[in-house]
From TrEMBL:
Component of the MICOS complex, a large protein complex of the mitochondrial inner membrane that plays crucial roles in the maintenance of crista junctions, inner membrane architecture, and formation of contact sites to the outer membrane. Component of the mitochondrial contact site and cristae organizing system (MICOS) complex. Belongs to the MICOS complex subunit Mic13 family. This is MICOS complex subunit MIC13. Keywords: Membrane, Mitochondrion, Mitochondrion inner membrane, Transmembrane, Transmembrane helix. One of its GO terms (cellular component) is mitochondrial crista junction. It comes from the Eukaryota.
Length: 102
């Protein structure tokens, strides 16, 4: 069982690497564009073959790289102010402890 799961995980990583998902942002955007063009006809073919009906997928139009960059900026901003905030919280904590001891 472990070997099967490991093999599937390895195959998934290989396919992701082969399709450019683990590369740069432009390679990932190209892979996403290719998936958007390829997946709907393939899914439609399988549903016709199996006799299933599935609803149309919602249209999602946003830039993944834009949201990724915003997240990176937020994390870096939080990390840059972390030492200052830690000092402020430490001072407030000591004041609180001193007030409790009095």
């Amino acid at each position: 069982r472990f070997m099967i799961k490991g093999g599937l995980a390895g195959a998934a990583v290989y396919v992701a690497y082969d399709q450019g998902l683990l590369g740069s942002g432009t390679e990932g955007a190209e892979a996403l564009k290719k998936a958007r063009e390829t997946l709907p006809p393939a899914i439609q073919e399988w549903t016709n073959y199996l006799g299933w009906e599935i609803p149309a997928p919602p249209k999602i139009d946003f830039s993944i790289s834009n949201y990724w960059n915003k997240g990176v900026h937020k994390v870096m901003s939080a990390l840059s102010v972390a030492p200052t905030r830690a000092c402020e919280y430490t001072v407030e904590g000591w004041k609180y402890v001193k007030d409790l001891v009095k």
